[in-house]
Amino acid sequence: MARTFKIAPSILSADFARLGEEIRRVEAAGADLIHFDVMDGHFVPNLSIGIPVLESLRKITRLPLDAHLMIERPERYLEAFVKAGANSISVHAEVCPDLPAIAARMRELGVRASVAINPETPLDRALQAAGEFDMILVMSVHPGFGGQGFIPETLDKVRTVRADLDRRGLDLDIEIDGGIKVDNIDQAAHAGANVFVSGSGIFGHPDYAAIIGAMRSRIGAV
Q1: Is the dihedral of CA 12, 17, 23, 28 positive or negative?
Q2: 158-179 pLDDT, tens digit each
Q3: Is 40 a catalytic residue?
Q4: Among 32, 40, 173, 177, which one carries the catalytic annotation?
Q5: Secondary structure (H, E, C), the chain
Q6: Which of these is catalytic: 32, 37, 66, 173?
């Protein structure tokens, strides 16, 4: 089935001293959504931004806000993130014992539901619950820090997920997050991903429109 490709700058790599300006620049440059990483220092060994920042960003952009909750007990915070303006929320399979239940809760709150899996996590539970979700997020780095190198083996995970979804006739997005840059985004698209999170791959360049345009050119040939 035909897929829509979307580019999602990850603000983890943006200049936090000028965050509002950074969001406006990537929006003007053609980004499709904004990826918003949340870390709690427990599930991942780092801390990052949270609900008040997302609420502030909601006021300055029309783009969908894609909240990636790298936290323990994400079910406790779903409603707060939705109220703050999140359009989609990813929770990690590693900390969610009942994936169908948390997916149902997200949909009840009116937000797109996504399940994320780390590079070393087996796909079984995420695929079993795929019919309850709108998106599967495949991590292509170990979560917790920006600027890491892409793990090529995670492309096999993407291929497996896409093949399984196609076999079952499930029309889900596959998001890939970690180390995505202009020189490997086409590989991720070939594997079956259609939502591409890029932090330093976009914010590490002076011309956001040029780099996003180059990414679109690479995936447009897939």
Answers
A1: negative
A2: 999 999 999 999 999 999 999 9
A3: no
A4: 177
A5: CCCCCEEEEEHHHCCHHHHHHHHHHHHHCCCCCEEEEEEECCCCCCECCCHHHHHHHHCCCCCCEEEEEECCCHHHCHHHHHHHCCCEEEEEHHHCCCHHHHHHHHHHCCCEEEEEECCCCCCHHHHHCHHHCCEEEEECCCCCCCCCCCCCCHHHHHHHHHHHHHHHCCCCEEEEECCCCCCCHHHHHHHCCCEEEECHHHHCCCCHHHHHHHHHHHHHCC
A6: 37
Domains of the chain: 6-220 (3.20.20.70)
**Whats the size of the chain, residue-wise?**
222
* pLDDT more than 90, % of the chain: 88
Residue 177 annotated among the catalytic residues of the structure: yes
Query: What would the pLDDT profile of 106-121 be if each residue is shown by its tens digit?
Result: 999 999 999 999 999 9
